[in-house]
Design goal:
Length: 228
Amino acid sequence: MPRVFSIAIDGPSGAGKSTVAKAVSERLNATYLDTGAMYRAVGLFMLRNGVPLADRDAIAENCARAEVDVRYGRDGRQRVYLGGEDVSDAIRTAEASLAASAVSTVPEVRRRMVQLQREIARGRAVVMDGRDIGTDVLPNATLKVFLTASMEVRARRRHQELLEKGMDEPYEKVLEELRRRDETDTKRAASPLRRAEDAVELDCSEMTLREVADRIVRLAETAIGEGA
Ligand code: DC
């Protein structure tokens, strides 16, 4: 019998969630779902269709037209599609990040994304990362982790990541964008970013992402064993 379990990894932008969640999913032989990519695809849809990001009613009205789909390539990597087009790279720009943050405050968008995420998780072993996985999407997750790191560590990591991709953004700009995103993610009315009461909090400012992944795998093996 294949094992069915769910691991929720939430936390602020740049804490290393996706790197860690990907590594954990590989080691536990589970499907990885990057839920942020789905909000990014909706954000990109609004940008491409000229829907003003400040107009929440227009976003709510138009979000049903954004056909977001998640598929897995032969290499097991997640690809995100918008109306059948693979937008996995297009959603990674700074513009798409801010658009994602804006659309993710709209309840209608969240309702749709959460429904899709639950469908993907059903009957599978999954590791999901996001902001509301432990609090809203998978309240009965086998293990919930809340991953944090100081603002400076997160900005430095993000800055480095961009440099590696050939994007030479000034550090101060990266820090400022992170601050803005934290602000919207934690202050929004609909499912704001917060730690679930039963989540394990890991501050990874002083840990390598490899160490964080090791720690989560151990916690997960224990939790899965207890649930079996
Ligand atoms: O993790 P990320 O940076 O790719 O997420 C993009 C935006 O989507 C971010 O501003 C927060 C939002 N988001 C969310 O509200 N809920 C999730 N489960 C995942 C992301």
